[in-house]
C-alpha cells in the first residue's frame, strides 16, 4: 500500500526558499571570497590609487591595478587561477607596486571617473610618472601578465 503526503503550496514555497538560501550561502563561502594575497602569487597592497601612484613614483616602479568586482565571475576566476601563480608573484611583487580596487567601492568609483572601466576585470599598468602604459579588459592569463611586466621593464 502506497502512502501519499499532501503538501500545500505554502509548504512547498518555504521548502524551495530554504533550498535557495542554502545554495546562496554556499556560493558565498570562503571558496569564492577574493584571494588577493596568497603565499605564492601577487600580493596586493590595501591603499588608494593616489597613494599607490606616489609609492610608484618614489620607488620608480610601475603600478599594477587590478580593478575587480565581488559579483564578477571572471574576476574570481583570475583571483583563484591566475593571480596566485608563483612565477607571477615573484615577478610582480619584486618589480611592480600592486593594488586591487573593487569598482563598486568609493575608490573604485574615483578610478572609473579618471580612467573609464567598461568591463571587469580591468587591469591598468601605470608608468612611475603616473601615465597609463597599458589597459587590459577581461580575463588575462599569467603568460600575458608576465609579458606585460617584461614590456614595462623596457
TrEMBL record:
Keyword Signal attributed: yes
Keyword Signal: yes
Domain of life per record: Bacteria
Residue intervals of the Thioredoxin domain: 21-154
SUPFAM superfamilies xref list: Thioredoxin-like
InterPro entries: AGR/TXD, Thioredoxin-like_fold, Thioredoxin-like_sf, Thioredoxin_domain
UniProt keyword terms in alphabetical order: Signal
Pfam families: Thioredoxin_2
Stated name of the protein: Thioredoxin family protein
Organism, scientific name: Mucilaginibacter dorajii
Amino acid at each position: 500500500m502506497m502512502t501519499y503526503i499532501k503538501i500545500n503550496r505554502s509548504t512547498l514555497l518555504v521548502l524551495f526558499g530554504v533550498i535557495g538560501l542554502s545554495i546562496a550561502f554556499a556560493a558565498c563561502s570562503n571558496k569564492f571570497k577574493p584571494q588577493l594575497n596568497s603565499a605564492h602569487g601577487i600580493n596586493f597592497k590595501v591603499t588608494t590609487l593616489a597613494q599607490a601612484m606616489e609609492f610608484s613614483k618614489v620607488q620608480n616602479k610601475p603600478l599594477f591595478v587590478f580593478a575587480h568586482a565581488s559579483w564578477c565571475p571572471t574576476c574570481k576566476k583570475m583571483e583563484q587561477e591566475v593571480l596566485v601563480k608563483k612565477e607571477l608573484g615573484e615577478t610582480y611583487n619584486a618589480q611592480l607596486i600592486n593594488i586591487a580596487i573593487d569598482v563598486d567601492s568609493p575608490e573604485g568609483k574615483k578610478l572609473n571617473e579618471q580612467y573609464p572601466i567598461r568591463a571587469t576585470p580591468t587591469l591598468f599598468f601605470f608608468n612611475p610618472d603616473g601615465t597609463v602604459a597599458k589597459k587590459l579588459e577581461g580575463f588575462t592569463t599569467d603568460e600575458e601578465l608576465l609579458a606585460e611586466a617584461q614590456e614595462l621593464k623596457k
